[in-house]
Design goal:
single chain; about 190 residues; alpha+beta; six-stranded mixed β-sheet; two-stranded antiparallel sheet; 5 helices; about 35% helix; globular
């Protein structure tokens, strides 16, 4: 896959994210509470992505499909990416694997788990996705990272983010009430 093709996939993903209405980030309930449910957001993003790729063969958008990864002979691990942009039946057209977090109280261990999955998706020789994106909505990822008390978890997250094929795309409400998607790639601790 060429760099130009990958940039096109990233642009389509960003345009699809922009089309997701605010109600899918935080959904009001009858009781007056607001829920930040990953599935509600993920399903709407899936819908927007499908619209974006409607006439674009051979790429397909799939959600939570089983992907088998063989690390050693006879040892297979099955992972379920939240969303993928890929070509069916081959690893040659695996473009983007996406993991999603929308809970403002997401734990460091959940972030590490998803980043490890993205690492598996993007490793050459496995599924060979060109890019793994951790989409985080409803919380400031850099602030979350800075406030972590467990230095080992923080360093593990930073180490995983140092992979050239893994990125965090983050959207949260700022103090002034505005919000936009921020792309965080190859982050180091002194950049936080």
């Amino acid at each position: 896959m060429t760099r130009k093709e990958l940039e096109r996939h990233k642009d389509k993903l960003m345009q699809s994210l922009i089309q997701v209405e605010p109600i899918y980030y935080a959904t009001p309930t009858i009781s007056g509470k607001t829920l930040t449910l990953e599935r509600i957001f993920a399903y709407e993003l899936y819908h927007q992505l499908r619209n974006s790729y409607e006439y674009e063969q051979p790429y397909a958008i799939n959600g939570e499909i089983s992907k088998g990864i063989s690390f050693c002979s006879g040892n297979e691990t099955t992972v379920f990416p939240d969303l993928v942009i890929h070509q069916h039946g081959t690893t040659e057209g695996n473009a983007v694997a996406i993991e999603i977090k929308t809970d403002k109280d997401v734990s460091p261990s959940d972030l590490i788990h998803d980043l490890k999955k993205l690492k598996k998706y993007t490793d050459e020789g496995n599924l060979n996705y060109q890019l793994g994106i951790l989409l985080i909505a409803n919380l400031d990822f850099c602030s979350k990272l800075n406030s972590m008390r467990n230095e080992e978890e923080k360093q593990q997250i930073l180490s995983l983010l140092n992979s050239p094929r893994i990125a965090v795309w983050n959207k949260f409400k700022k103090i002034d009430g505005s919000s936009e998607w921020i792309k965080i790639e190859n982050i180091s601790e002194d950049e936080l």
